[in-house]
Amino acid sequence: MTKVSSVGRPTNDQDIVEILRAVRADDIVSGTITQVGCPPGAAVRLDGRLDLASAGIGPLDVSWCRRSDEVIQVGRRVTAEVIDVDEERETTGLSLAATENPELWAVLKGLRPGEVLGGEVADVQRFGVFVAPQSLPNCSHRDQCPCGSTQASQHRT
């Protein structure tokens, strides 16, 4: 099946699959937000040949410290970490939050199911409990965080 890329270049499914095979989780990529909120999160047109594949930022991967509507706006240039590559669906999952605090993200990626962390309950909402773990790196941009906390792990919006 022949498709046309966002910049008007003819392409086919095999081209997209080959491009996606060169992309790996943990890669840092740049692009422009093209759509917000449908599905929740944002659609991103990546730079270069990566623009042939769909890319998206899920609602939990937007920001740990700022409100989503402050971060994701159509036309905004972004740099994000690749967190998933799906060749079958021809999509790339991205995380802006991972690039906000790389030290914290590195620790979080190393956690495994069943691990126990100590911490203090920071807030209770109808949809869940926010805990400030004692053993995670401090938020490197505390002055930008609406809650004013030094623990980045409680910065969900």
Ordered list of secondary-structure elements with their pairings:
Elements: E1 2-4, E2 10-12, H1 13-21, E3 28-36, E4 42-46, E5 54-57, H2 68-71, E6 77-86, E7 91-95, H3 97-100, H4 102-110, E8 119-125, E9 128-133
Parallel strand pairs: 5-7
Antiparallel strand pairs: 1-2, 3-4, 3-6, 4-5, 6-7, 8-9
Strand order of the largest sheet: 3-4-5-7-6
H/I helix tally: 4
Range of strand content: 25-35%
Order of helices and strands: EEHEEEHEEHHEE
What is the alpha-carbon Rg in Å?
A: 17 Å
**Structural class of the secondary elements?**
alpha+beta
Low-confidence stretches: 1-10, 141-157
Question: Can you describe this structure?
Answer:
There is one protein chain. The chain has 4 helices and 9 strands. The protein has 157 residues and is an alpha+beta fold. The protein has a 5-stranded mixed barrel with strand order 3-4-5-7-6. Strands 1-2 form a two-stranded antiparallel sheet.
Keywords:
157 residues; alpha+beta; five-stranded mixed β-barrel; two-stranded antiparallel ribbon; 4 helices; 9 strands; globular; disordered C terminus
What's this entry about, in short?
The chain has 4 helices and 9 strands; from the N terminus they run E-E-H-E-E-E-H-E-E-H-H-E-E. With 157 residues, the chain is an alpha+beta fold. The longest helix is centred in the N-terminal third of the chain and has 9 residues.
